[in-house]
């Protein structure tokens, strides 16, 4: 197909060779399948603010930093230049999150390049090499739902340990990719998390806890349709409590149960025990010297 204007410049610069087809048009971007040599990738073209149905809500942009002080002042004033800089910061948020999460081992599309508001990244595919389906397009058995939910709880924990909360996670922005990984049951597909421009810093955003709870509840409600036992789980409060206490790691075994009153008291006790252990270790090292 003929390359749209914003992809034509990438063709001219040799970043891609051709545009195959449009894959989707979402609330904040349009996605195309493109070719680069022997590779098939996808190109995400971010829509301008006036054409987006998803607004840059203050909940998401709170505490997002820009390195240039002039840009920060202009963004605060809301000048034309400031709005342009805000757009650039909004777009780069997903790029930064993708690189950060890919490095942390989270299953996200591998980013390759970001140029003029276009993100080039891995095309997530199914067993036939076609674009992978979203969760909401698939029906699951109870066991499949339990397995995928467990895998996604692991991914959410990895994200949180990397300091990132998705902020808009649901069955609409998770793909089922083909798996040829050893140990994957019956060649079962695995979930890949996409669409991260709303991602927030877990430690620096005052709304991060609420967003995490919503993300986890969305997954519980979706998979709970197929595996009703998930409907009473409390993974969100459990992992956030552990995260706040500094006890959450990528190896933490979650239970899905959470007793708020008991956990609040217990967390303080655990923290005191950690402080005591650190004090004892410091004293021991001093005695050795």
Could you describe the 3D structure shown?
The chain has a five-stranded antiparallel beta sheet with strand order 1-2-3-5-4, sandwiched between helices. A two-stranded antiparallel sheet has the order 6-9. The chain has two domains: 17-122, Phosphorylase Kinase, domain 1, CATH 3.30.200; 135-272, Transferase(Phosphotransferase) domain 1 (Transferase(Phosphotransferase), domain 1, Orthogonal Bundle). It is built from eight helices and nine strands. Helix 3 (69-77) crosses helix 4 (80-103), helix 5 packs antiparallel against helix 6 and helix 6 (208-224) runs antiparallel to helix 7 (235-244). It is globular and about 65 Å long. Helices cover 42% and strands 16% of the residues. The chain has 289 residues and is α+β, with helices and mostly antiparallel strands. It has helices spanning 5-12, 58-61, 69-77, 80-103, 142-161, 208-224, 235-244, 260-288, and strands at residues 18-25, 29-36, 39-46, 111-115, 118-122, 164-165, 174-177, 190-193, 200-201. The model is unreliable at 50-56 and 70-76 (pLDDT under 50).
Percent of residues in beta strands: 15-25%
Number of helical elements? 8
Strand order in the sheet with the most strands: 1-2-3-5-4
The largest sheet, given as strand count, sense and whether it forms a barrel, is: 5 strands, antiparallel
Number of strands: 9
* Structural class computed from helices and strand pairing: alpha+beta
First CA to last CA: what distance?
A: 72 Å
Bulk shape: globular
CATH homology superfamily name of the largest domain:
Transferase(Phosphotransferase) domain 1
Radius of gyration: 22 Å
Let me know the average pLDDT: 82
- CATH architectural arrangement of the largest domain: Orthogonal Bundle
Q: Estimate nothing, just give the exact number of structural domains.
A: 2
């Amino acid at each position: 197909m003929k390359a749209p204007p914003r992809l034509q410049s990438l063709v001219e610069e040799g970043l891609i060779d051709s545009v195959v087809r449009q894959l989707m048009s979402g609330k904040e971007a349009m996605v195309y399948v493109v070719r680069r040599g022997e590779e098939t990738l996808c190109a995400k073209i971010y829509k301008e603010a006036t054409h987006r149905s998803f607004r840059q809500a203050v909940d998401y942009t709170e505490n997002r930093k820009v390195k240039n002080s002039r840009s920060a002042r202009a963004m605060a004033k809301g000048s034309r230049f400031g709005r342009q800089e805000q757009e650039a910061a909004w777009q780069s948020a997903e790029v930064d999150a993708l690189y950060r999460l890919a490095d942390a081992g989270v299953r996200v599309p591998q980013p390759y390049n970001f140029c003029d508001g276009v993100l080039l990244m891995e095309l997530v595919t199914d067993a036939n090499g076609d674009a992978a389906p979203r969760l909401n397009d698939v029906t699951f058995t109870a066991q499949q739902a339990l397995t995928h939910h467990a895998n996604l709880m692991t991914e959410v924990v990895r994200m949180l340990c990397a300091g990132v909360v998705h902020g808009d996670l649901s069955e609409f922005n998770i793909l089922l990719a083909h798996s040829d990984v050893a140990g994957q049951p019956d060649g079962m597909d695995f979930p890949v998390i996409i669409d991260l421009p709303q991602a927030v810093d877990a430690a620096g955003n005052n709304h991060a806890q609420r967003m995490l709870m919503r993300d986890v509840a969305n997954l519980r409600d979706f998979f709970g349709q197929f595996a009703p036992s998930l409907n009473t789980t409390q993974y969100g409060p459990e992992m956030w409590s552990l995260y706040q206490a500094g006890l959450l790691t990528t190896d933490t075994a979650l239970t899905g149960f959470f007793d708020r009153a008991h956990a609040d008291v217990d967390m303080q006790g655990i923290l005191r025990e950690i402080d005591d252990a650190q004090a004892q270790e410091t004293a021991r090292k001093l005695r050795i010297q």
